[in-house]
């Protein structure tokens, strides 16, 4: 089936663009954004996902302001042309890899935004995340880019207007695509396993550079994904993709102090080595926590790829101290942090998902809160 995108020279195969490479219902293509005021006064996040096999497009925008996480959600039928709009939410790409616009029409729910992302760095291609079950079944296989930038524009929460100053607001975005568990999963006769995830993702902004660290670990601490780098800022006129200017670090490790009774950091330090052998040490101070359910991750109603008919739009407002920290919908989170490296102060997030046992950190059970060893 042909669509308007077939008029562009972007085909990776002999198929029309609307034809996904696989019939796996977990095939997806996603935008994701976050941002924060350097003074900690607000945090924002947005996302939009396409699930061509499921025929679903969904999106969300969320803002944490004065201790409350406000969110607007939309989900509907995905047309063949891969629209980047659903209900009151839309994403525009005026200049690929440089300028992205995120819009939420406030008339629908009282929550809205008109925000423009501008790149500070090149877009970095992260290591491919591919995971296969012991039976040989593909669980996850996706590519992701990460890019640092700034936000400019306006956010509305009912009668409150927040002016977003690009000099005081940092931004991180990613794009990912491939196969990842979304929506209702297929029933099989294979024995069910308790999921195990130990994930840390740490994009940070400093005045003259950015840093990135990411890792996945199994139950015993063996690592199946690792990345660590220092990313320079874009030079005037430099391309924003297609090359890798980062300094790649080795020997990534961490020391995390855990919140008792929770599965999230109280404070943390990450370590790595530069190519010359000198140590990089990043100390993190947590300001507050954003629950990723605010943009659909593990949400009991608005979970990614779930079916909501032709169109459904909704709103949610939850005080940060009202979340149950051990509810499954609360465990995928981003800690808003102040970071220090070599005396320089920066800002960003430490995203975490900790499910199941993890022996090195002492986590036990599927969602049990962390407790110090006896």
Secondary structure layout:
Elements: E1 27-37, E2 42-51, E3 56-65, E4 68-77, E5 85-86, E6 89-95, E7 99-104, H1 106-109, E8 111-119, E9 124-125, E10 129-132, E11 138-157, E12 160-164, E13 169-179, E14 197-205, E15 209-217, E16 223-232, E17 247-248, E18 250-258, E19 265-273, E20 279-291, E21 311-319, E22 333-341, E23 344-355
Antiparallel strand pairs: 1-2, 1-13, 2-3, 3-4, 4-21, 5-6, 6-7, 7-8, 8-11, 9-11, 10-11, 11-12, 11-13, 14-15, 14-23, 15-16, 16-17, 18-19, 19-20, 20-22, 22-23
Write a structural description.
With 374 residues, the chain is mostly beta strands. 1% of the residues lie in helices and 53% in strands. It has a single domain (25-184, 193-361), classed as Beta Barrel (AttH-like fold). It is built from 1 helix and 23 strands. The strands form 2 sheets. Strands 1, 2, 3, 4, 5, 6, 7, 8, 9, 10, 11, 12, 13 and 21 form a 14-stranded antiparallel beta sheet that branches. The mean pLDDT is 96.
What characteristics describe this protein?
mainly beta, AttH-like fold, 9-stranded antiparallel β-sheet, 374 residues, 14-stranded antiparallel β-sheet
Secondary-structure arrangement, i.e. CATH architecture: Beta Barrel
What is the count of DSSP helices, taking H or I runs of 4+ residues?
A: 1
What class, by secondary structure content? mainly beta
Stated plainly, the CATH topology is called: AttH-like fold
Helix share bin: under 10%
Q: How many beta-strand segments?
A: 23
From the alpha carbons, calculate the radius of gyration and give it in angstroms: 20 Å
**Name given to the CATH homologous superfamily:** AttH-like domain
